[in-house]
Every structure is written in structure tokens, then in C-alpha cells.
């Protein structure tokens, strides 16, 4: 029933109810924003302290009260970290491995997900259930068997154990891509089949161009996982010249543990690439996560 001004005039309680509901809504939104603001400050304060410490001298780090903004910022700290250790080499090694692993994750997950979502074959659902089940298996369980395998192959001391497994698919990425592909109309595949397109051509010319958000999500997850990985590089890499940025940070802290301003400068540099990557691809990342859970088939 439409509420007119005459009705409101005859029923003053209705106006009071709407006003009170509007006030409650505004109050709840204000409290939510305050809570998010406090939570955001809690997360960002350690990062601010790291950046502030990276611009100080050793004697200014642990003074009380904390000097959040250095009076004389020492930008030379960011130059010194490259003179003590080949930090630029560590960064290039991390980028190299991240690109290889992300490429393999995107290509392998796309191909496998297409076969499990767009092609009907006997036992498809059972195989997909088995693939998803492997996500419940902790990585530490397969750590020793895979190490023995890579040692038998002769890959220990090389980069191969760090990026080759990504080219054979990842259960979570396959699940994510499959769920996204299920949201794409099957009629597009049928139209391509009528035009004489093969499954390979349908995948790369019809399906893949529509999977941008899911592909971006997989690429972000894979790049961040490879970039932040510490345990696997620690196990398989022994030469300092092959160290990734995470191993370099440990080596830097171990060798220059008393010079926290240099350690924090190196940490600041290592944090910047993931932050830049997330803000650049944030739109596709959020969209890929949202749409990947819509399919119910």
C-alpha cells in the first residue's frame, strides 16, 4: 500500500518509526566504520613502524617515546642494503620463479578445469571430487616423498622443484577455475562447435577470454605464494646466488642482526611488490572470488 503524506499526517507514529529506524541505521553504519577504522589502524601500524625504522640510525630505533617520523630521514639505508648483499639478485630470482609458477598455474588450471566443466565424459565428477579431496592433504605429508623424488631425479640444488609442479595443476586453482567456467553459458560452446571449432580452439578463443577475473585471481594467488615462499627454497636451494628474497632477508638478518635499520629497509623493499600487485589487480581479484562461488552445477 502506498504511503501518502495524508496517511502520515493521520498516523504520526509511522513518521516516528521511520525516523527511529533511520537513526538506528546511521548509528550502526557509524559503529561499523569506526570498527573498520580501528582494525585498519591495527594492521597498518606495524608497517608504518617498519618504514619509519628503515629511515633511522641504529641509535634512534629503540628510543622512548617512539619517534614515528625521523627528524633526518636516512635514505642511504636503502642504498647500503645493496652493497652488503646482492639484494638485487634475490629480487630478480623471486620474480623469475613467480612468473614461471604463475604461468604454469594459469595454463594447467585452465586446461584441467575446461575438461572438468565443459566436456562430458564418464567419471568426470568422481575425478573432480578426488582432485578436490587432495586439498585436505597437508603439504608436510608429501614433503619428504617429493624431496626423495626430486633428489633421485637430480633436481635438488636447482629451481625445478619450485616451479615445475605448478605446471601439473593445483587442486584449489582447478576448483576455482572450474566454478567460474560453470557460470559461462554452454550455448557459446555449442555455437563454436557448430562452426567447426575444436575443443582446443573453443577453450582459447571462446572460454578463456571470458575468464579474465578467475585468471587474474589464480595469477595473484600463485605469484604471492611463490614470492612469499620460504620453506621450499630453504630446502632445495643451497647457493647464495640462487637465493630468493625471503632467504635473502633471513641471511641479511643473520649477518646484520644488530643493524635493524638495514633489515627494515630490506623488508620494506620486499613488501612493495605484493602491495603494488594487489592494488593493480584488486578489481579482477574481488570479481573472480565472487563469481567463482555462484555456480551450483
What does this structure look like?
With 297 residues, the protein is mainly alpha-helical. The protein folds into 2 domains: 5-45; 77-291, MetI-like (MetI-like fold), CATH 1.10.3720. It is 69% helix and 0% strand. It is built from 15 helices and no strands. The chain has helices at 5-10, 12-53, 77-84, 87-117, 124-133, 143-153, 160-163, 171-181, 186-194, 199-207, 212-227, 231-236, 245-255, 260-280, 282-291. Helix 4 (87-117) crosses helix 8, helix 4 (87-117) packs antiparallel against helix 13 and helix 11 packs across helix 15 (282-291). The radius of gyration is 27 Å and the shape is globular. The two termini are 39 Å apart. Residues 293-297 have low confidence and may be disordered.
Topology, pairings included?
Layout: H1 5-10, H2 12-53, H3 77-84, H4 87-117, H5 124-133, H6 143-153, H7 160-163, H8 171-181, H9 186-194, H10 199-207, H11 212-227, H12 231-236, H13 245-255, H14 260-280, H15 282-291
Helix pairs in contact: 2-14, 3-14, 4-8, 4-11, 4-13, 5-8, 9-10, 11-15, 13-14
Amino acid at each position: 500500500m502506498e504511503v501518502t503524506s495524508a496517511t502520515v499526517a493521520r498516523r504520526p507514529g509511522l513518521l516516528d518509526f521511520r525516523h527511529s529506524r533511520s537513526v538506528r541505521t546511521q548509528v550502526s553504519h557509524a559503529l561499523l566504520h569506526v570498527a573498520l577504522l580501528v582494525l585498519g589502524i591495527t594492521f597498518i601500524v606495524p608497517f608504518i613502524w617498519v618504514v619509519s625504522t628503515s629511515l633511522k640510525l641504529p641509535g634512534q630505533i629503540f628510543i622512548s617515546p617512539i619517534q614515528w617520523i625521523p627528524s633526518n630521514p636516512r635514505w642511504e639505508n636503502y642504498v647500503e642494503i645493496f652493497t652488503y648483499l646482492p639484494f638485487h639478485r634475490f629480487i630478480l630470482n623471486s620474480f623469475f620463479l613467480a612468473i614461471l609458477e604463475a604461468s604454469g598455474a594459469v595454463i594447467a588450471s585452465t586446461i584441467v578445469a575446461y575438461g572438468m566443466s565443459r566436456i562430458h565424459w564418464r567419471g568426470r565428477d568422481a575425478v573432480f571430487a578426488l582432485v578436490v579431496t587432495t586439498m585436505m592433504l597437508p603439504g608436510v605429508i608429501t614433503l619428504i616423498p617429493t624431496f626423495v623424488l626430486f633428489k633421485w631425479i637430480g633436481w635438488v640444488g636447482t629451481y625445478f622443484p619450485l616451479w615445475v609442479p605448478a605446471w601439473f595443476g593445483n587442486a584449489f586453482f582447478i576448483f576455482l577455475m572450474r566454478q567460474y567456467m560453470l557460470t559461462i553459458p554452454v550455448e557459446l560452446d555449442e555455437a563454436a562447435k557448430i562452426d567447426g571449432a575444436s575443443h582446443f580452439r573453443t577453450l582459447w578463443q571462446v572460454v578463456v577470454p571470458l575468464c579474465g577475473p578467475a585468471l587474474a585471481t589464480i595469477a595473484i594467488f600463485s605469484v604471492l605464494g611463490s614470492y612469499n615462499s620460504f620453506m621450499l627454497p630453504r630446502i632445495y636451494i643451497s647457493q647464495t646466488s640462487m637465493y630468493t628474497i625471503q632467504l635473502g632477508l633471513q641471511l641479511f638478518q643473520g649477518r646484520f642482526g644488530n643493524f635493524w635499520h638495514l633489515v627494515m629497509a630490506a623488508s620494506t623493499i620486499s613488501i612493495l611488490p605484493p602491495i603494488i600487485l594487489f592494488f593493480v589487480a584488486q578489481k579482477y581479484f574481488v570479481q573472480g572470488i565472487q563469481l567463482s562461488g555462484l555456480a551450483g552445477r
